[in-house]
Amino acid sequence: MIVETAVKIFSCTQSMTLSKQIAKEFGQDLGIVSFQRYSDGEFQPSFEESVRGSRVFIIGSTNPSTDNLMEMLLMLDAAKRASARHITAVIPYFGWARQDRKDKPRVPIGAKLVAKLLESAGATRIITMDLHADQIQGFFEKPVDHLYASSIFVPYLESLNIDNLTIASPDMGGSKRAYAYSKFLDSDVVICYKQRSKGNAITHMELIGDVTGKNVVLIDDMVDTAGTLTKAADLMIEKGAESVIAICTHALLSGDAYEKIEKSKLNKLITSDSIEVKKESNKVEHLSCSKMFAEAMYNIHHNKSIDKLFINK
User: Fold this and answer.
1) Is the whole-model pTM more than 0.90?
2) Given 104, 142, 194, 283, which residue is catalytic?
């Protein structure tokens, strides 16, 4: 007699809103997790239902603070020790991904360390979206399903019917992503060249390409302080662009990012909901990635291909 493996979906606290939407799209309720918290900040998650022999999906982005990563690790360990058969870490935003190499002496490769921690904690599979660096997939010894937010952003851009469209990358590192979007939108591409004195501090920016009379769409994987994005938008307008909107998958929006966006020449910022919305802004719009993750989870559980989720890359 063949017994079908049950599916259990749980959420870390930092991604509860998105997790509820993913579970709804998947067709079942979230599992119940309780947390015991100590006065010094330590916490202990507990699954309030059996996961023995089940396929467990644990959803949670690992953006700072480090509590978010620690919560994911503890829940993975709990599922492993409770005899779950398959344990998939669903990480819409993979934090610490900017530390994907040694860019100067005596620094860690944080993304590699996080990958090892996730595997050691019990993850048998990883589902994530728009990694800051594609090679991070190779840091894992377990299967990684790397989804692309272009699957939701490209149809959105097509629905806008933008005239004189030009795709732009705010830095050289994002040029591959910009060219991928331009291929599907049949548009020109321009690139910004920037120099930094340190992280989040831009000393100089130049534009490679012509944006005169163009409606520009800036493409990036993440927006943190919004310094690069707003500076690039202002530069595009100075160089003759008619309008500038931005598409950024992961909206970290730390520090005074919202104020920078409001004061900039940027018409609108479109992001996914991979990170919980901190506050509302007239210039910031969120598109849900819940359906894409739910479809990936469903197909993985039923041993079906998920290649159609990659068609826009």
Assistant:
1) yes
2) 194
